[in-house]
Amino acid sequence: MNIALGPSWLDPDHLINTYGLWGVLLIVFAESGLLIGFFLPGDSLLFTTGLLVASGTLHQPLAVVAALIAVAAVAGEQVGYLFGRKVGPSLFRRPESRLFKMENIEKAHAFFEHHGPKAIVMACFVPVVRTFTPIVAGVSRMHYRTFLTFNLIGGTMWGAGVTLLGYWLGQIQVVRDNIEAMLVLVVLVSVVPLAIEYLRSRGKAKKAPAAATARAAADPADGPAELLAPTPRGGRHRAQKR
């Protein structure tokens, strides 16, 4: 198969053909919890792996491939959690760089705060958030047993699940005849959550100034207006400033 979806180091087919199953496991491990792994092609890589197993290009049993990928995903999240727990709040004071963006941590933190422990499972299916959520869970001192439970569920569902999906669809002739289109579709589906979050953030940013203006209009700042105080006995009205 020749699948060109960008630079060769981001092309799932090239990565698998060059580095084999061990390369897949290393990438899954890095993308699941290491700061440097957020840009790696996790979803499309797993889907392609399933397709290659189905076509016989990758000569390993499906059960072994799916199990090893699930282990790599869980292990990566474990490292991310332990890193976040050890580094703690200093992570949020880390200077920006090309690889480290504070906004990625903040998005994962908001996702984690909104969904609670189940965010560990849900984040596995959201690119970028998938990488940073285990780190945020560690920073937040989430109970380890709780994290481990959801980590095992999420890592297995994502790692083995997407691989099995690729294998299952690889049995269908129309899919095998349009593999590049299927991979493009997988990539598009994987970025839908990010697109929704981006649009939601932009909507909130646009509404914030309007809301502030409305509040200011409803409750104007104290100005120089004068109110008449009650008339004292034997005197005239005296103006009193608010």
Key structural traits:
globular, mainly alpha, 9 helices, two-stranded antiparallel ribbon, 67% helix, 2 strands, single chain, 242 residues
Helix and strand topology:
Blueprint: H1 12-31, H2 42-55, H3 62-87, H4 102-115, H5 119-123, H6 129-139, H7 144-169, H8 173-177, H9 179-218, E1 226-228, E2 239-241
Antiparallel strand pairs: 1-2
What does this structure look like?
The structure is a single chain. Strands 1-2 form a two-stranded antiparallel ribbon. It is an all-alpha fold and 242 residues long. The longest helix is centred in the last third of the chain and has 40 residues, at 179-218. It is 67% helix and 2% strand. The chain has one domain (8-191). The protein has helices spanning 12-31, 42-55, 62-87, 102-115, 119-123, 129-139, 144-169, 173-177, 179-218; strands at residues 226-228, 239-241.
Classify the beta-strand content into a percent band: under 5%
Coarse morphology: globular
Spans of at least 5 consecutive residues whose pLDDT stays below 50 are 1-6, 222-229, 237-242
Secondary-structure-based class equals: mainly alpha
Radius of gyration: 26 Å
Compressed to H and E, one letter per element, the order equals HHHHHHHHHEE
Integer average pLDDT: 74
Give the end-to-end Cα distance, rounded to a whole number of Å.
79 Å
Count of folded domains: 1
The percent of residues in helical segments reads: 55-70%
Number of distinct helices: 9
Compute the number of strand runs: 2
Biggest sheet, spatial arrangement of strands: 1-2
**Largest sheet, strands/sense/barrel:** 2 strands, antiparallel
